[in-house]
Amino acid sequence: MLMYVEPTNLCNIKSEFCPTGDKALLKSVGRSGGVMNWDLLHKIVADLKEFDRPLKIINFYKDGEPLVNKNYPEMVRYLKDAGVAERIWTKTNGLLLKPEINERLATCGLDMVGISVIAPNNDGYLHTAKVKVDYDTLRENITDLFCRPVRPQISINMTDVGFSQAD
User: 15: Cβ–Cβ under 8 A, 6 or more apart, which residues?
Assistant: First the structure.
């Protein structure tokens, strides 16, 4: 059994292909934004402990950028220590990765981190995600996480969202 748990439905970018970054759309459907608090996580864990066995996987992400939640690594550790899932996975756009957060992510109990790289350069991020990015810094931060001696499995993907030959 697999379960998605959303630590936040906020995002730090406005990708043209993702409704989460479209504030007008979210407002039109009455969806407010926020981050998960500890009380809700405690309730989720208590409820999951009622099952006769742990889940196979908790995907501790859904529509938002999980690292927007400042307590994210500590929440992962709480889930891991509770033993409510065999594996805990996450996905991130990677823009909030930096050595300090990487250290916390590498040691919090995550089993897999998927990193969705949105474009192959600065201009692509500006066009596709409506955000200025230093692509070299993004690569350095991903490399920093990957090169940690203890770390989760890492998967990196880039989806073709209409790149040109120049990209």
Answer: 21, 118, 128, 129, 130
pLDDT digits (tens, 9 = 90+) for 29-62: 777 788 999 999 999 999 999 999 999 999 999 9
Q: What are phi and psi of 134, to 5 degrees?
A: -90, 100
Instruction: Please name the residues in contact with 36: beta carbons below 8 A apart, sequence gap of 6 or more.
Output: 5, 6, 7, 8, 69, 75
**How many whole angstroms separate alpha carbon 7 and alpha carbon 35?**
6
Angle between helical axes of 99-107 and 72-82 (0-180°, round to 10): 10
Q: How crowded is residue 47: how many other Cβ atoms within 10 Å of its Cβ?
A: 10
Which residue, 39, 69, 47, is CA-closest to 3? 47
Distances (CA, A) of 113 to 3, 30, 89, 90, 153: 16, 30, 6, 5, 6
pLDDT tens by residue, 94-150: 999 999 999 999 999 999 999 999 888 999 888 888 889 999 999 999 999 999 999
